Amino acid sequence: MTAETVRLSESWKKALAAEFDAPYMRTLKDFLIASKNSGKVIFPKGNEYFRALDLTPLGTVKVVILGQDPYHGEGQAHGLCFSVRPGVRVPPSLVNIYKEMQADLGIPPARHGYLEHWAKQGVLLLNSVLTVERACAASHQGKGWERFTDAVIARVNAQETPAVFMLWGAYAQRKAAFVDSSKHLVLKAPHPSPLSAHNGFFGSRHFSQANDFLIRNGLTPIDWKLPDTP
């Protein structure tokens, strides 16, 4: 797996060249190849592993939302955290994200869960682990992806332009604990999962806070309203 062979914006290819050349990425590539050769089905598709980075070039990142693993159900994952393909039922955590957006910004919940509209505006929808085996949650944790996505976050943190980090849940908060909060806006809340959303995710008003911060720093706010049809 090299920067030259993956579908990825040029800004990220340059910024992450050392990661792609590192031994751990070669080990990760060998693991993925061996998994596929043994008949295991991997989500998302190979050309979508880095979809979040491809849609949101480094210099355009305004907001970072961190997830943990891709969805492991058939036809769900397509390389953006919390997002699902058109026609797929909106997952419970995303339903709660929509509820909070409505309470915060008055935006009615979308009828789909396809979030590319956000990504194309500078919302980096980054999972910590970028692949998963079908019907086997967390199956690719500890294989190297976490180190790679740590490097992604570090590159955004190092940018001169300030960004907003939406850290939902303890996992995301630990992963991005090194982000410079004197330069960037770091927003923390419980995870939007039905198990924890009522413990402080609802009422967190992260979406309006993010846009207020972007405006104060001379940046265009995010249009969080998704198109009626993806």
From TrEMBL:
Keywords: Cytoplasm, DNA damage, DNA repair, Glycosidase, Hydrolase
Cellular component terms per the entry's GO annotation: cytoplasm
Cleavable signal peptide: none
Record flagged with keyword DNA repair: yes
GO biological process: base-excision repair, AP site formation via deaminated base removal
Substrates-to-products reaction catalysed: Hydrolyzes single-stranded DNA or mismatched double-stranded DNA and polynucleotides, releasing free uracil
EC number: 3.2.2.27
Segments forming domain Uracil-DNA glycosylase-like: 54-214
Predominant cellular place of this UniProt entry's protein: cytoplasm
Top EC category: hydrolase
One Pfam family recorded for the sequence: UDG
Keyword hit for Cytoplasm: yes
SMART domains, A to Z: UDG (SM00986), UreE_C (SM00987)
Subcellular location: Cytoplasm
Active site: 69 (proton acceptor)
NCBIfam families: PRK05254.1-1, PRK05254.1-2, PRK05254.1-4, PRK05254.1-5, ung
Entry's family note: Belongs to the uracil-DNA glycosylase (UDG) superfamily. UNG family.
Task performed by this protein: Excises uracil residues from the DNA which can arise as a result of misincorporation of dUMP residues by DNA polymerase or due to deamination of cytosine.
Name the record gives this protein: Uracil-DNA glycosylase
Gene: ung
